[in-house]
Design brief:
Layout: E1 3-11, H1 15-27, E2 32-35, E3 40-45, H2 57-60, E4 66-74, H3 79-86, E5 91-93, E6 97-100, E7 112-115, H4 128-138, E8 146-150, H5 156-163, E9 168-173, H6 176-188, E10 194-198, E11 209-215, H7 218-230, E12 232-244, H8 248-257, E13 261-268, E14 271-277
Parallel strand pairs: 6-7, 8-9, 8-11, 9-10, 11-12
Antiparallel strand pairs: 1-3, 1-4, 2-3, 5-6, 12-14, 13-14
Bound molecules: S-adenosylmethionine.
S-adenosylmethionine binds near residues 123, 133, 150 and 215.
EC number: 2.1.1.-
Organism: Prolixibacter bellariivorans
Family: Belongs to the methyltransferase superfamily. PrmA family.
């Protein structure tokens, strides 16, 4: 997939202004972010980007800061190199789960080691939401469970669930790169009980799950929660992430509307992973 990188220069530039801007751009469809000393870099599939996006009122009329944009198209074939060189660092979650790329050497030993060839699929653990999801998975008893990894990205959550004893994992992503990347990563990690599908919640049918992971955008979660709830067994749990603390009441209200009970949440740098039980 071809991406557009928008470098955002903030005036004044501060941690809180960067957070606000990142949240606003997330609302506008940007799905990955990184930071440099001078800018916030926001990435969006080129197919979803027009210059009009940057003229949105939420960005232009912010009383706290002004922002100047510089856009650059990143051709599809460069992602692997760009990502590997600049963004993907080996990561140890909860001192138990190491996530590394095939080219990382000299890494610490851990109870679980997941090798991720990241391409441009989201999910190396370096983002707060993936980190939160991995922490949550490490705390679960997954022996013999039927797991759904919705919006699988690199497949990292489903791979860890399988390593932790899940009986079967279905991984679904709307993005072809993510679909292919999950297949590759499952193979690299010798995971044989993952089925990977290209699609969205409409793909879900009669099969019921004990555990669902959905680290997707707030609006997708709100839209697709009724479908997720419909494929949860009794007492199944769903862990959702990909939204900010201030969105938790809205997500919780929707979850309760479709028959799910809140069962706690974790927060990291204002991102949330929330658990609900059917
Ligand atoms: C934030 S990433 C999460 C990736 C990975 N699960 C993780 O935790 O790091 C969200 C993923 O959801 C996918 N996605 C977006 N909308 C979707 C939808 N409606 N149905 C399924 N997947 C979707 C994106 O392509 C992306 O790979």
């Amino acid at each position: 997939m071809e991406y557009t990188k928008v470098s955002c220069f903030l005036e004044p530039d501060s941690e809180i202004n960067r957070e606000i801007l990142t949240a606003q751009m997330g609302e506008l469809g940007f799905d990955s972010f990184s930071e440099t000393d001078k800018t916030v870099e926001a990435f969006i599939p080129s197919s979803a980007f027009t210059e009009d996006v940057l003229q949105s009122e939420s960005l232009k009329d912010n009383p706290l800061f002004k922002v100047r944009f510089q856009t650059e198209v990143i051709p599809d074939q460069n992602w692997n190199e760009v990502w590997e060189k600049n963004y993907f660092k080996p990561l140890l979650v909860e001192n138990r789960c190491l996530i590394r790329a095939p080219f990382h050497t000299d890494t610490p030993k851990a109870e679980y080691e997941i090798v991720i060839d990241p391409r441009m699929a989201f999910g190396t653990g370096n983002h707060e939401t993936t980190y939160l999801m991995i922490s949550a998975i490490l705390s679960q008893d997954l022996q013999g469970k039927q797991v759904l990894d919705m919006g699988c990205g690199t497949g990292i959550l489903g791979i860890l669930a399988s390593m932790r004893g899940a009986e079967t994992v279905k991984a679904i992503d709307i993005d072809e790169w993510a679909y292919n990347n999950t297949l590759e990563n499952a193979e690299i990690n010798n995971i044989t009980n993952i089925d990977v599908f290209l699609g969205d919640a409409n793909f879900l049918g009669k099969h019921k799950f004990d555990v669902i992971y959905a680290n997707i955008h707030r609006n997708i979660l709100l839209q697709d929660l009724p479908i997720y709830a419909s494929v949860m067994c009794k007492e199944a749990e769903i862990i959702m992430s990909g939204f900010y603390l201030e969105d938790l009441p809205t997500i919780s209200a929707k979850a309760e509307e479709v028959g799910l009970k809140p069962a706690g949440y974790q927060e990291r740098n204002n991102w949330v992973a929330a658990r609900f039980i059917r």
